[in-house]
Amino acid sequence: MNKTIDKIKITLLWLQIFPILLHAQSAMTNIEGRQSTSLNGIWNIIIDPFDAGSGNWAAYYKDRKPTNDSDFVEYAFEGGPQLYVPGDFNSQLPDLKYYESSIWYKRTFSIQTTANNRFFLHFGAVNYRAEIYLNGAKIGEHEGGFTPFQFEVTDQLKNGDNSLIVKVNNQRVKDGIPGLGFDWFNYGGITRDVDLVSTPKTYIKDYFIQLSQNNENIVKGYVKLDGSTKQQEIRISIPELGANFRTRTNEDGMATLRFPLKNKSLWTPANPKLYDVIVSAQTDTIQEKIGFRTIRVDGTDILLNGKSIFLKGINIHEEIPQRQSRAYHESDYKILLDWAKELGCNYVRLVHYPHHEKMVKMAEKMGLMVWEKLPVYQGIDFANESMKEKMSLMLKEMISRDQNRAAIIIWSLSNETYSSPPRDSALKRLYQLTKSLDDTRLVTSALNNMRFEGNKAYIEDEVNSFMDVMAINQYLGWYKQWPEANKEVEWISKFNKPLIFSEFGGEAVFGNNNNPERASSWSEDYLANIYKRQFNMFKSISYLRGVTPWLLVDFRSPGRAHPLYQKGWNRKGLLSDRGEKKKAWYIVAGYFKDN
User: Cα(277)–Cα(499) distance, rounded to whole angstroms?
Assistant: First the structure.
């Protein structure tokens, strides 16, 4: 009887532990401020288009070797192809250009563990599904291609050499986020940094330190400890301002922050001031540069630090077109953001997914405000309960990573989704979750379902009733003809809120000036005329508070199939895929200079 009870107890314990082992933990805040060993570099790979390596017979994750003269193994990581991490696999090997399936990555590393430390494997992002194996045992999995995740491996590490294997699958799936169809290139692989992070037994896992949006002289937030010694004194220090605050965590390791902060320089595009902020517990200390600002809405105004601001932005994909690859290095981010600054932008819309943390930090240092968004893009089954869980998890991962970035002024929940009760309910739920996690920023969703009657455009989607700002994608002159040749469109909103045109523009091939009156010619002059007319139309929209042309630079999109003009590229960039300025660039730059 006792043996039976013991078996039941063991089974119940295993059922409790098993999900924790399989599913990734939320990632710690400020990975760059941690003691870590980079696992970036050259990894050995096995290309697995049929997913053969997951089965018990092949079991690539075991990394077996022949044990005697008559034994053999029908796979090996050594002697095969190699890939650089971080980076996408599609651009590194010609045979993988359009590959959408599994790749197994492997690298070994050496570590000396200590009894006083914990160890975590931290992944900046893996697209799209990842399975992680350490020393032949599965330690976890993660879904989602653009947010960080981690696994604690304190008990799985060995002193000396360790073998890390990651199965990556970038196959598009109906219940993925994004889903099956999206208008950008599906770069697969370990696309962002991999780090082995060392922490004390109880460490500062998460903290949120920002100004109250109702009082720019008050800092609010929290500190969260992870470990066995959860009740500790917490100190927040900002040496340059002589600020010091002390509090204690509760039995859950949580401390609420609220303290005065005066005589500071507020973060602005003209003066992107950042302060060294030191967060200390009795067992751990971490430091980060943080800026302080307020962003809120007053009627149809957007107020930065209490002053009305007009957002002059550009849409940017995380791609380097000249290399035809995912952007993954700081020099890549500098190329993209330098272009935005040259254009005259004060903000950037990073589409259609969270970009690299380093991209956001660089924008912050350069004085560029940031719109950051979830990859909830068209075609999402909002009635599916599992999809709701995935959206919520990705939202939490995105906010947790970047919640201390003053540059981020907008969290965006979706792009071009269509009204239905499940859609409206899901977005309202996401909005409420966002505000519960972070009430210091604006929240929106980009919509494209205006109603046109003659020369009037009506903004009526009820999702706008609970968003902080309205965001509209409209392609007058491209996907939709101008209603009347000599009369501008009048925009009518039933909501007393500021409007951002989050996308507008058209396609043109650099150097092509044929048939400037025809959209189908893909001519530079036709695109330039779209922008001239758009900017003329904007003059009469009293509640317009931001514009974001689509987009900075031509980008890869296999669905763009015109054999002469597109060739697998979306040609809506103000720059060509080689960085050449189209005529439309100068139209936009002139508008930004004058507004």
Answer: 35
* Strand order from edge to edge, sheet including 233-238: 243-248, 233-238, 275-280, 285-290
Total Cβ atoms within 10 A of residue 583 = 18
Distance, CA of 208 to CA of 211 (rounded, Å): 10
Provide the 10 A C-beta neighbour count for residue 323.
10
Assigned token pair, 265: 């320089």
Using one digit for the tens of pLDDT, what is the confidence trace for 417-456? 999 999 999 999 999 999 999 999 999 999 999 999 989 9
Using one digit for the tens of pLDDT, what is the confidence trace for 345-380?
999 999 999 999 999 999 999 999 999 999 999 888
Indicate the pairing of strand 442-447 with strand 408-415: parallel
- Distance of alpha carbon 43 from alpha carbon 104, whole angstroms: 10
**Terminal C-alpha separation, the chain:** 81
432 vs 435: CA distance, rounded Å:
5
Report the candidate in 314, 319, 321 with the shortest Cα–Cα distance to residue 349: 314
Distance CA 190, CA 375 (A): 18
**Rounded CA separation 328/94 (Å):** 19
The Cα 274–Cα 264 span in angstroms is: 10
